[in-house]
Amino acid sequence: MKRTILFILLFLVSNVFAQETPTLKSLLGHEIGVEFTRHHEVISFYEKLHKAFETESKILEYGETNEGRKLMLFFMGSAENISRLDEVRNMHRLRGNNSKLPIIWLSYNVHGNESSATESSIQTAYKLLTEHKDWLKESIVIIDPCLNPDGRDRYVNFFKQYAAITQNTDPSSIEHKEPWPGGRFNHYLFDLNRDWAWLTQVESQQRMKIYNKWLPHVHVDFHEQGYNEPYYFPPAAEPFHEMITDWQREFQERIGKNHAKYFDSAGWLYFSKEIFDLLYPSYGDTYPMYNGAIGMTYEQAGSGRAGRSVRTNLGDTLTLKDRIDHHVTTGLSTVEVSLQNKNELIENYNSFGVDKKYKYAHYILRGDNDKLQKISNLLRAHNIEFGQIAKEGRVKAWSFRKQIEQNLTYNKGDLVVSTSQLKGPMVEVLFEPKTYLSDSLTYDITAWSLPFAYGIDAHGFNGALEMDKNWFQSFNRSSMPNCYAYLCKWNSMNSASFLQSILSQNITVKVAEKEFQIEDEVFPVGTLVIPRGINKDINDFDEILQRAAEDSWIDIYPVASGYVSKGKDFGSSSYNEIYLPKVGVLSGGDLSPLNTGEIWHFFEKELALPFRMFRLSELNRIDELDIIVLPAGELSADELEQLKQWIENGGRLLVFGDAAYNFVADFDISVRDLEIDYSATEREELSGLITGAIYECDLLAKSSPLTFGYSGYYSLRQSASNFSLKNGKTILSLPENAEQVSGFVGFKAKENQDKAMILGVENFGKGELIYFCDNPLFRGFWENGKLLVANALYFGND
Ligand SMILES: [Zn+2]
Predict the structure, then answer these.
(1) Which range of residues forms the domain containing residue 238?
(2) Does 615 lie in the same domain as 749?
(3) Is 152 in the same domain as 32?
(4) Which helix (H) or strand (E) is 46 found in, with range?
(5) Tens digit of each residue's pLDDT (9 = 90 or more) over 773-784
(6) Ligand 1 center to residue 423 CA distance, Å?
(7) pLDDT digit string (tens) for 95-128?
């Protein structure tokens, strides 16, 4: 009898437990893989999953997207470890013997339309908490279900609108053809998997704060590629950056082999060691690598074309369920390998960066206050330590500008970034003047050195320096009651955002067309002059200027008189009034979504300049616009004709990147291109390519307002096309026999760079075209190029 009661009790208890573990379907609301889950449903799923496994999981909301969608992380581990998560993190961060738990961070759907990724995160999290509970006893797994919710919902909404009930597998049907701009990008059409290092986007900025608190041992970025491709997993392809250790490469191999084991037994196709290299630091695999982790990219066949099921070139049907299965398999396999090798993983992670050989011990940075402010913000966002010179001195150091070792007198207060710190490898990767390429067949740009990107004077130095750990800036914002005028030097985007801010508050501003001097202070061309006398009707004139200067991080100079020591007095005609331009930005059609997004983001987030973004189909309503910005891409003959008439009547067209090709036939611009050899292999094609290299430019028109704020310029060259103007004015060009300062340039492409135009102006009728042959807003990170665009907006070609 007692026995029977015991059995009944046991049966009841086990039944209660069985009932307590809800099915995935009951949490999600549908069977996984039968349809796409919208972002709010993803969030709700994770909330329910957390409720079901309350002690073994934790939700952390880390921010919001531009469109107001939640960004969240889902932590899993043993109940004990989850209850003391901060302690676990501190142990890990100290990198000592107490750090015993591998931290594995899985990131999904950074590209919004690579839509199986988020679905895979759902099943992976569920399986870890149910089938693989034992793994969580000795690890922390962090899941970011969706890095790009705005892009993903854009895709999912599109798909749900058009998807046939019967599932149309024909790749030509509408559900497999996303409209412009597609769901890959975030709200501002940025590629978030190119933004890890530059942090131009809110998603990256908020994620990096928490990522840098954890700096996991392993990070995986789950992607999708073309729907006809097999699965890709590491080991990655050459080139590898020198900061990546042999051990990191070897561990990638170990992980790849474990994945292969599962794929072999299921008969799934895959490849590794090809295409996806580890160099450009702004990816979800390289960035973790440079921070000591094993960073990896996994690519499933799918993306925006695949829908719920699609017929492949081989005649097979690829379903959403298949895609999820593959990603779940590699996700789980990653956790498995990390656990099997946990001691080795932790040891090697802890010693990453110890005894590393760096090119330079220190980078000494000097420049305008506002430019230094910009770069210091980026360093802080990466938890990179920096300080300032404590005592002046003289040493031999390597000059970024001159590209030689030279005598350098450094001063107290100069900003110093050293490689001897936890983030040393990251400092090396971001600052080194030349990146070593073990192979030139790469997936992305090959040069990005921050001093060139930020327009800062830099020196690399090996030796001892007396340094203060804290660097601080003091801005000149002194006030002078009833001063005659305020002056602001035109140095960087900070000056431009100051100008935009005060113009929009109805302040009248003039710009100096000639250099002038007041006592010892020289004010170069482009200096903003804001006289009180012509702003009499503005009540809080001083407050507006002071506040705008503070918000824009710039120096302003009050002056007591309009009489200058050298140059023209402020009443002279060499000071021109600046007007707020009416700006339009073209979008859609065959224009590049990425470039359109860069321009959109620039106007909205960097300048806060109101503008009209409009479709190519609305080119018949542009009479009231002063300026139109044309992103890279192709125009139809009709569209070109409409723009032509508008320019003739006085419009100013800003032409970005390869959009210049549209004007080659009918306008002044011509182009010299390399002949395309269609029989060339991918490797042979390299000889004609520039995939992102840095060149020093010649400043040909020094008096042009387009170069206000510049005494020199380095361009990030993104193509090998050599544009030139027959009669127009070339403002910036590459020198004769131009050689790149950094980055890969194929030998044929190199010969084609002679005097290539970077920035030029063509007058046409009453209007003009301004050509930006290298897109200065590329990925929003080439800080020093942005002022060229601001010049074209406010000053034009006067
Ligand atoms: Zn992707």
Answers:
(1) 22-351
(2) yes
(3) yes
(4) helix 39-52
(5) 999 999 999 999
(6) 27
(7) 988 889 999 999 999 999 999 999 999 999 999 9
